[in-house]
Write a structure and sequence with these properties.
Blueprint lengths: L2 E7 L7 H16 L2 E7 L14 H15 L5 H8 L1 H5 L7 E4 L2 E4 L4 H13 L4 E8 L5 H11 L4 E6 L3 H8 L8 E2 L7 H4 L11 E4 L8 H17 L4 E4 L4 H14 L13 H9 L3 E4 L2 H9 L4 E4 L3 H9 L6 E2 L5 H14 L3 H23 L2
Parallel strand pairs: 1-2, 1-3, 3-5, 4-5, 5-6, 6-7, 8-9, 8-10, 10-11, 11-12
Length: 374
C-alpha cells in the first residue's frame, strides 16, 4: 500500500544549506519508498524569498522581532508560530509517518514550531523520526523542558544526531530507555543527488562569508580584509560567496565596499538549493564559516578550512579526522593560508566522505522501513 509521509524541514530558508539537505532527504525517500510525500517548512514559509513579498508593516514587525530576539526579549519561534498559525494548521491530518529532515533543529528557536506540529501528530498517534539533527545547548529552562517532553513522547520512534549526541542523551533523554544514535549530515550525499557539472577553469579559493552574531561586524570585516591581503600577497586567486542568507550577503557587500572589490571578486547571492551547490562547485578549495558550505564541498571532493563559531563546525572536522583544518577568527591569517597550502597537497579523503554519506542514508531508510512495516 502506498504510504503518506510528511517531511518537515527548513525547506525555504535563505540559509540554503538546510534547503539542500531537505531536497536530498526527499529524493532518498522517493527513490526507495513507495509513498506520497507532503512538505512542511518548519518556519512556515511557502516559497523561497517569501520575505520579499511581505507587506511594508510585516517587514517592520519582522525587523523589530529580530532585534528583540537578539537581546533575548522574545522567542522568535513562538512569534513565528503565532503569525503562521494558519499554515501549521494545514498539517493537522493523518500521515503514516512524519520525518524531521535534519539541520540544527534541536535548539531554542525551533522548540515552539516543533511543539505546534507534534501536538497534531500525538493526537493522531502518528510515528515521528528526527533524522540527522544538530543539537545546541538551550539556556532557557522552560524551552529545555518543552524539548525534553517532545523527545520523550512515545510517538517519537527514532532520534539520530549528527553532532552533539552526548547533549541529547544526557540532558534531554536522561534516564529514559530511549537513546539517540549517531549519524552524519545528509548533505554529504549532495554529489549523488544534485546533477551539477563542475566547470573550474582555474584554481580559485572560495571565501564563505557569514554575518556571525558571535562577533562584532567590524571584527569580521577586518578578519576577511586581512585574509584577502595575505592571499593576494601569495598570488592565490579567490572569490567571496555566501550560503544565501540576506544577512550574510549584506556582510559580504560590506567587505566589497571596504576593500573596493570589483564584480569578478564576489558571487551574487544564491537563491535556491541548486544555486548554492553550483556556487560551491566553482571552487577547488574553501575557507568558510557556514557548516553546510563544508559539507556540500566535502561531498564534491573539495577540501575546506573551517572558521569555527559553534561546536558543530569543530564536530564536522573531528568526524573526518581533520581537526587541524578548523581555525578561529583569532587565528593568524598567515597560519590559515599556510594550512590552505597544506590542504592543497593533501586533498580530501573521499572514502570517509562516501562512508559517512552511505551511513546517513542507510540510517534514514532503515528507520523508515522499520516503522512503516511494523
Amino acid at each position: 500500500m502506498k504510504k503518506k509521509i510528511l517531511l518537515v524541514g527548513e525547506l525555504y530558508s535563505d540559509n540554503l544549506g538546510d534547503a539542500v539537505l531537505c531536497e536530498i532527504v526527499k529524493n532518498i525517500i522517493k527513490e526507495n519508498i513507495y509513498c506520497d510525500i507532503e512538505l512542511c517548512d518548519l518556519s512556515g514559509r511557502k516559497f523561497y524569498g517569501e520575505y520579499f513579498n511581505y507587506k511594508w508593516y510585516e517587514r517592520i514587525i519582522k525587523k523589530i522581532a529580530l532585534i528583540l530576539f537578539k537581546f533575548n526579549l522574545i522567542n522568535l519561534g513562538k512569534i513565528n508560530v503565532l503569525f503562521k498559525n494558519n499554515y501549521y494548521n494545514k498539517f493537522d491530518k493523518s500521515y503514516d509517518l512524519v520525518i524531521f529532515a535534519g539541520g540544527q533543529m534541536l535548539m531554542d528557536y525551533f522548540v515552539f514550531p516543533i511543539e505546534k506540529l507534534i501536538k497534531f501528530f500525538k493526537k493522531r498517534n502518528i510515528p515521528v523520526i528526527f533524522h540527522a539533527c544538530g543539537a545546541k545547548e538551550i539556556e532557557n529552562r522552560n524551552l529545555e523542558k518543552r524539548l525534553k517532553k517532545i523527545l520523550l513522547l512515545d510517538i517519537v520512534k527514532s532520534i539520530s544526531i549528527r553532532d552533539d549526541i552526548n547533549l541529547v542523551n544526557t540532558k534531554y533523554l536522561m534516564t529514559s530507555k530511549k537513546k539517540a544514535v549517531k549519524t552524519f549530515d545528509t548533505a554529504l550525499c549532495t554529489n549523488e543527488y544534485f546533477n551539477i557539472n563542475k566547470v573550474r577553469k582555474e584554481s580559485i579559493v572560495g571565501l564563505g562569508i557569514m554575518n556571525c552574531d558571535k562577533f562584532r561586524a567590524e571584527k569580521q570585516i577586518i578578519f576577511w580584509s586581512n585574509l584577502i591581503d595575505e592571499l593576494d600577497k601569495r598570488k592565490i586567486k579567490w572569490q567571496l560567496f555566501c550560503n544565501g542568507s540576506e544577512a550574510d550577503y549584506k556582510m559580504l557587500k560590506n567587505i566589497v565596499v571596504r576593500k573596493n572589490l570589483n564584480k569578478n571578486q564576489y558571487l551574487m547571492r544564491p537563491k535556491t538549493a541548486k544555486d548554492l551547490v553550483k556556487v560551491i562547485s566553482n571552487f577547488d578549495k574553501i575557507i568558510s564559516f557556514r557548516l553546510h558550505s563544508h559539507i556540500i564541498a566535502a561531498s564534491m571532493g573539495i577540501p575546506t578550512i573551517g572558521i569555527s563559531w559553534e561546536k558543530k563546525v569543530n564536530q564536522f572536522f573531528y568526524n573526518l579526522g581533520l581537526e587541524y583544518r578548523c581555525k578561529t577568527i583569532n587565528t593568524s591569517v598567515q597560519d590559515i593560508v599556510d594550512c590552505l597550502e597544506l590542504v592543497e597537497k593533501e586533498g580530501i579523503n573521499n572514502i570517509i566522505i562516501k562512508k559517512q554519506s552511505y551511513l546517513s542514508k542507510k540510517s534514514l531508510l532503515d528507520n523508515i522501513n522499520r516503522i512503516i512495516k511494523s
